[in-house]
Design goal:
By secondary structure, this protein is mainly beta. It has strands at 7-14, 17-23, 32-34, 38-40, 46-48, 51-53, 63-66, 74-77, 80-82, 86-97, 103-105, 108-110, 114-121, 124-133, 139-141, 145-147, 153-155, 158-160, 170-173, 181-184, 187-189, 193-203, 210-212, 215-217, 221-228, 231-239, 247-248, 252-253, 267-268, 275-282, 288-295, 307-308, 311-312, 316-325, 331-340. Helix content is 0%, strand content 52%. The strands form 14 sheets. A 5-stranded mixed sheet has the order 28-35-34-30-31, with no helix packed on it. A 3-stranded mixed sheet has the order 3-8-7, with no helix packed on it. A 3-stranded mixed sheet has the order 10-14-13, with no helix packed on it.
């Protein structure tokens, strides 16, 4: 028998037996109804029982009660679950360097390196890296210093005297964040000025060495002397056009040789402009055995052939004396001895 109402019922089992029983009723526990679960991402919302529900992790599922006239209300539960959001790995998107201390990415400024995660929507995150490179310090090149060879300059508290081909000096400014700075001081050598002086001295037969700025010069020519690091002087040591006088007399004659060796005379390198005023020969007792005046040098027959009054003089040592008239009008006298060999 189907019963739809609570109450006490009596039914006959057989002629001698009746059974009395109760159909009870419990309306204190409404029958539950669990709806299909709603899949969410953190921050998503859904509508339930006319209300917008935006659950957070750990929240209980919302429940509504459907009231019935017979008191058998119903409980409607709307469960939800959070999906794991997708995280998109982007990798490095910008580089912080010593020269670039901040970068802008997707509207946000970053000043520190690291891995960052931002939410694009309720179900999507983006993970990216802000990298850093401090291995290449930012260089600073100062204005070039103009030098002349030998010049010096002060850099980083030191005196530097560079030579051609030297590298420009560099100093490092150390920073707490590792972004040290390299400071370079270039330099360039100017071409020194050369001042043309011209002739400053002349080498002559009398002055065979001349002094210029404390230096002795014995050869004619063009010379360059450094006055200071940026200045040179080019000057000329001239040679007198006059040929220097070179006089030679033999110290031995052999009259019977039949050639120039048999004569005693004056030999010079400039006979056209020199005159022998006199040549006198004396024996060892002081007797004059030869004399000639006003003749040209380099002519053996103008000299002495070892005879006196047409006779051969005895072998031995004889004294001579001569005087030359030089091109400048001065006179030059010499004395000496010559030996006759037979």
């Amino acid at each position: 028998t189907t019963y739809t109402q609570p109450g006490t019922y009596t039914v006959q089992i057989d002629n001698c037996t009746y059974q009395q029983f109760d159909i009870a009723q419990d309306i204190n526990t409404p029958p539950p109804t669990v709806l299909a679960s709603v899949a969410l991402c953190p921050g998503d919302c859904f509508t339930f029982n006319g209300q917008t529900v935006c659950p957070a992790a750990g929240d209980a599922a919302p429940v509504m009660t459907l009231f019935a006239a017979n008191g058998c209300d119903s409980l409607i539960t709307q469960p939800f679950v959070f999906n794991v959001p997708d995280t998109v790995l982007i990798g490095p998107v910008a580089m912080l360097t010593c020269g670039t201390s901040s970068v802008l990415y997707n509207g946000t400024t970053y000043t520190q390196p690291g891995t960052y995660t931002v939410q694009l929507d309720n179900c999507t995150y983006q993970q990216f890296d802000i990298a850093q490179d401090i291995n290449t310090p930012p260089p600073t090149v100062l204005t070039s210093v103009a030098l002349c060879p030998g010049d010096c300059f002060t850099f980083n508290g030191q005196t530097i005297c560079p030579s051609a081909g030297d590298a420009a000096p560099v100093m490092t400014l150390f920073a707490a964040n590792g972004c040290d700075s390299l400071i370079t001081q270039p330099f360039a050598f100017n071409a020194p000025d050369t001042v043309l002086i011209g002739i400053v001295a002349t080498i002559t037969c009398k002055e065979t060495t001349v002094m210029v700025a404390g230096i002795a010069y014995a050869q004619p020519g063009s010379y360059v002397q450094q006055i200071d690091p940026c200045t040179y002087e080019q000057f000329t040591i001239a040679q007198s056009p006059e040929t220097c006088l070179d006089v030679y007399v033999p110290n031995v004659i052999k009259p019977e040789s039949g050639n120039a060796n048999g004569w005693f005379t004056i030999y010079t390198n400039n006979n056209a402009r020199i005159q022998v005023n006199f040549l006198r020969i004396f024996d060892r007792w002081g007797n004059e055995v030869f004399s000639n005046v006003q003749f040209s040098p380099n002519v053996p027959q103008s000299g002495w052939n070892g005879t006196f009054n047409g006779k051969a003089c005895q072998p031995g040592v004889y004294l001579f004396m001569y005087e030359l008239l030089l091109p400048d009008g001065t006179r030059q006298m010499k004395k000496g001895d010559v030996t006759i060999l037979r």
